[in-house]
Amino acid sequence: MAETELYVRLAVALAIGLGVGLERGWKQRDEPSGKRETGIRTFAILALIGFAVGIGLERFGPLFAGAAALGVFAIISIGYAMESLDEHGDRGATTEVAAFLTFVLGALAGAGELLAASLIAAILVALLDYKDELHGLLKRMQKLELTAAVKLALVTVVLLPVLPDEGYGPGGVLNPHELWWAVVVIATLGFGGYVAMKIGGAQRGALFLGLMGGFVSSTAVAVSASRASKAGPRGSLPLASAIATAQAVMFIRTGILIGVLNAALLDHIMVALALGAITSIAGALLVARRAHEDSAGEALQAGSPDTLGSAVQFVAVVAVVLVAAHYAQLYAGDFGLIASGLLSGSIDVDAATVTATRLSGGELHAASERAAAASIGMALIANSIVKAGIAFMLGARALAWPAIGVLISSAGAVLAGLAIVFLLPSFG
Predict the structure, then answer these.
(1) What pLDDT digit, counting tens, does each position of 78-137 carry?
(2) Which are the contacts of 233, defined by CB distance < 8 A and separation ≥ 6?
(3) Euclidean distance between CA atoms 417 and 278, whole angstroms
(4) Pick from 96, 90, 92, 61: nearest CA to 75
(5) Which residues, in sequence order, are CB contacts of 394 under 8 Å at separation 6+?
(6) Measured between alpha carbons, how far is 211 from 218 in angstroms, rounded to an integer?
(7) ∠350-356-360 over CA atoms, to 5°?
(8) Distance (Å, rounded) from C-alpha 268 to C-alpha 222?
(9) Cα(57)–Cα(157) distance, rounded to whole angstroms?
(10) Rounded CA gap, 192 and 333, in Å?
(11) pLDDT in tens, 228-264
(12) What are the residue boundaries of the structural domains of the chain, listed by start?
């Protein structure tokens, strides 16, 4: 090992010990010297012990490291037991656990795992420093919120990885992994929007839901926001602004996707994308302004955090539409490509965009770029109309009408853009 690398490892280990020790010592700075728990010097020493163990691991073997870890654990445990007896009462073990982890991180740094040690150390210091905020979160959390989070984690971490990532059914359009991923996306957006509105209030929470959700699935935002609006009419306008914001992001996302997959199509679809985005942004600003004026100073309901059931129902409809789109494209050529854009775009604009860009590349079909652009445009229009229907059927009336106004006007703008490109010879 070069001397420079040795010094770098030592510096990282020492920085970890000092960083954790500073956080612990700062919170005990007003305590008398004899009354303080483990402080900055102790944490630095523990990190240096770990560093020495990490350096010696290759030469002395795992038994040496295990014995050192056992010794450090025993010292920390004895100190904790003695302090508990002296204080005649129970006390938390956070400092002791942090001390042992600091030793482990020092060992990682000594063994050369500098990035892993640094990342874990940063998270450790953050967890220690945000004690009051985390405890406050636990006090505010309701049983329904915890249950919804656990269910979402189970369907994401346990079920999603084991589902086959390959196509089944006609044309292989039914991919269990991708369909369940859509369930996860919709349910996560619903839960994320709930949390955002609880923490940041309806205005900022709705803006977050629209911006972030629009880059994932604007249709999922429409479903989640519409259902959440049933919790109370005062939250409807902020949620309508989330739908409008996601609609604007959808046009930007589609343009980026086309540029990456088949940039030649941008000449045929850019005008429609630009008009749709401008219309959506203007509508989102108007709805957000109304929401700010109508809800100032009033508490708004965040809805329900558990949207898993509605997400499953929604994706079941997606599967039916995907099969129909496959047959439309199979039997009708360019016209089928446009028709499939209408069908698949009614649920997922990205699916229609990827299909059109690939088919116009000449690998599978001789679809023209103009037909591909028309297919994407029809997908955008169909998706906007479907989201308007979702807002009307699932949402409160106070959400539905503003959202429908933005969605339908942006669909009209896309249609106007397509007409400009396809009817005027100077375009396309």
Answers:
(1) 877 776 665 544 456 778 888 889 999 999 999 988 998 999 999 888 888 877 666 665
(2) 396, 398
(3) 12
(4) 96
(5) 223, 226, 227, 230
(6) 9
(7) 150
(8) 28
(9) 34
(10) 41
(11) 787 765 668 888 888 999 899 889 888 887 887 778 7
(12) 3-136, 142-423
Tell me which amino acid residue 22 is. L
Q: Are 105 and 117 in contact (CB under 8 A)?
A: yes
In a 13 Å sphere around the CA of 140, the CA atoms on its Cβ side amount to 9
Rounded CA-CA distance 140/138 in Å is 5
Percentage, residues of the chain above pLDDT 70: 65
Q: Read off the amino acid at residue 414.
A: V
CA distance 343 to 329: 10
Which residues is 174 bridged to in the sheet? 168
Cα dihedral 396/398/402/405 (nearest 10): 60
- Taking every pair of Cα atoms in the chain, the longest distance, rounded to a whole number of angstroms, is 89
Buried b (16+ CB within 10 A) or exposed e, 136-170: eeeeeeeeebeebeebbeebbeeebeeeeeeeeee
Contacts 24+ apart (CB under 8 A), 324-327: 325/173, 326/170, 326/171, 326/173, 327/170
Distance CA 228, CA 205 (A): 12
Cβ–Cβ < 8 Å for 369, 360? yes
Structure tokens at 354: 């990827």
Quickly list DSSP for 323-390: HHHHHHHHHHHHHHHHHHHHHHHTT-HHHHHHHHHHHTTTSS----HHHHHHHHHHHHHHHHHHHHHH
